[in-house]
Design goal:
Layout (H helix, E strand, L loop, with lengths): L9 H8 L1 E9 L7 H9 L7 E10 L15 E6 L4 H8 L7 E4 L5 E2 L3 H11 L3 E11 L5 E2 L8 E3 L3 H8 L12 E3 H6 L10 H12 L1 E13 L14 H19 L14
Parallel strand pairs: 1-2, 1-4, 2-3, 6-10
Antiparallel strand pairs: 4-9, 5-10, 6-7, 6-9, 8-10
């Protein structure tokens, strides 16, 4: 007797012929007007081989002000939920993320040409690298850009290097968390973004650094928009009492993770 061949489910067929990177964006009403620029930067990406992108947009709230700015594109999904900050929005958006890798793109920022392809090249070439970051340029209101000295060299970031630099330099990381691209399973294992009112992305960066090697791409991968309404420009963001608490819990989490025997990939042991 011969076995009767079975027809694979459509999802299995699709997975066999395409590979996907998920771009996750948290948005609130004031930043929604910048979504078309972010979308244009996504459409300009050229991915290798059979790779494709999907864009998962999650509103931090349930207003009627964001949806009109969401592109009508089958690759784009839009969700809403009760307000909890950008970290909550990004984390709950992971329920709709189908990609092997998750790329962060804030609603008011833009990817540079080739950014996704460079991330994929690193992560596909070395399974021991859990995440990538890249050089970031400020996008000023007049359309010009500005960079800053002090970026790492192009190449690997060993475990613990980010936390060490961050601690020695007044809680300033050597790389920008807004440019992160992360292996999906690693991001989920760490619980997504931290439950903080701000610096939730820095907290994730420090956690990633505690358990896995990263990579810094010296070519600019992100335009970080500077504008009057951005959250990091508000007075509450630099309140010294809250900032000290945010930094303390982010550091404590990273050090606790570094002290465990778990690492990515499994079996690397704790960082020295």
């Amino acid at each position: 007797m011969t076995d009767t061949p079975t027809t694979p489910a459509p999802e299995a067929v699709r997975a066999a012929v395409t590979r996907r990177i998920t771009v996750v964006t948290a948005v609130h009403a004031p930043s929604a007007r910048f979504l078309p620029d972010a979308y244009a930067s996504l459409c300009a990406q050229r991915l290798p081989g059979d790779w494709e992108w999907e864009w998962v947009i999650q509103e931090d709230g349930t207003t009627d002000e964001v949806r009109p700015h969401v592109p009508d594109d089958a690759r784009v999904s839009f969700g809403q939920g009760r307000p909890g900050g950008p970290g909550v929005a990004r984390t709950i958006a992971l329920a709709r993320a189908a990609g092997a890798y998750v790329k962060v793109l804030d609603a008011d920022d833009q990817l540079t040409p080739g950014a996704l392809a460079r991330d994929l090249a690193v992560l596909e070439a070395d399974p021991a690298v859990g995440w990538t970051t890249s050089r970031v340029l400020d996008l000023l209101p007049d359309g010009s850009t500005a960079g800053f000295p002090g970026d790492p060299e192009d190449g690997p970031l060993e475990r613990g290097a980010v936390l060490d630099h961050w601690k020695r330099n007044g809680f300033r990381a050597p790389v920008h968390p807004a440019s992160l691209c992360i292996r999906r399973e690693l991001l989920l294992a760490l619980g997504g973004w931290m439950a903080l009112p701000a610096s939730e992305d820095t907290g994730l960066l420090l956690a990633l650094d505690a358990v896995s090697r990263g990579w810094f791409c010296a070519e600019a991968g992100l335009l970080y928009r500077k504008w009057e309404g951005q959250v990091t420009g508000q007075a509450s963001h630099v309140d010294p009492v809250e900032r000290e608490a945010r930094m303390a819990v982010a550091e404590a989490r990273a050090r606790a993770l570094a002290g465990l025997t778990w690492a990515y990939p499994a079996g690397l042991g704790s960082a020295s």
